[in-house]
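Researcher: Final request for today, and then I'll write up notes for the group meeting. The sequence and the SMILES for coenzyme A follow.
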Amino acid sequence: MKIILETARLYLREFEPSDGVHFYHLNNDEEVIKHTGNKPFKSLKEAMVFIENYSDYKQNGFGRWAVCLKKTNEFLGWCGLKLENNEIDLGYRFYKKHWGKGYATEASLGCINYGFSTLKLKKIIGRSHIKNEASICILKKCNFKFKKKYVYDNQPAVLYALINDTN
Ligand SMILES: CC(C)(COP(=O)(O)OP(=O)(O)OC[C@H]1O[C@@H](n2cnc3c(N)ncnc32)[C@H](O)[C@@H]1OP(=O)(O)O)[C@@H](O)C(=O)NCCC(=O)NCCS
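Model: Predicted protein-coenzyme A complex:
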């Protein structure tokens, strides 16, 4: 197990092949993927292959990570960074039963701290569909600043950004 960072209640680790089952179940929940632009995996096998081929850690030195509860080691969801079109994006997705407990905010703050302090990133962006109020709430709580409204995945969306002014 490769742990990347810890917060008060959580640890974030690199994905493991067995996480495919979680990706399958997460994306099989209509409510979870409602604002993400993703479709459910066609099969468990497809989700397992997706995880096996996940190459961000090798390619970029970071990626999305599994978020687990320290107390029980339970997989709660994922959170992390993604390099896309020369920008680094913060993303998160949790099982519905774990929404509203502050886990996404806590994990996001951990990722931002890791991104700025360890990876020495200059900027992290956050994208969200306008209707995804929980997601926008997290960005605001993490001190991201509103940049613009635009269209993402054919939906009205907002772009936020957080600048690292410590280096
Ligand atoms: C977005 C998501 C990760 C939030 O996870 P979470 O662990 O519930 O988030 P947190 O508990 O840390 O914080 C959510 C905040 O949003 C607020 N919130 C939730 N629903 C809201 C709504 N409809 N309107 C306004 N605020 C809302 C909560 O009150 C909370 O703020 P608070 O702590 O100040 O009360 C979770 O809902 C999820 O997995 N959604 C599906 C995937 C997704 O949409 N990802 C983002 C794509 S851009």
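Model: Helices lie at 20-27, 30-33, 44-52, 56-60, 103-118, 133-141. The mean pLDDT is 97.
Researcher: Thanks, that's everything.
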